[in-house]
Amino acid sequence: MNIFVGSLPFSIEEADLRESFEAYGAVDSVKIITDKFTGRSKGFGFVEMPVDAEAQKAIDELNGATVQGRAIVVNKSEPKPEGERRSFNNNRGGDSRGGYGNSRGGDNRGGGNRGGY
Fold this sequence. Notes:
Residues 1-79 form the RRM domain. Keywords: RNA-binding. This is RNA-binding protein. The protein is an alpha+beta fold and 117 residues long. Helix content is 17%, strand content 23%. The protein is globular. The model has no long low-confidence stretch (mean pLDDT 84).
């Protein structure tokens, strides 16, 4: 079973998380999600346990438990339906954020009539 673990302290290590779950049974993998630019924990992760009964017991007993002063959230991870995933390389054309074109605001210093010259 794949288990979501949220509200993790940013200082927790994967080994610490593994140890917490191994108290309930075998653990296949532990992954704390990190920011790809800073490498800092995002405060959540996933634990995979091969035996559903052990995984459910871990969920029941660890959900709401305090770890390093924070109440963690533990529940079964459900895969998102394919239509809800965000795609970061999906070019839809047209960028509506503006840009440098002719709308540069106060940078309008062209010639014109300057009163009496």
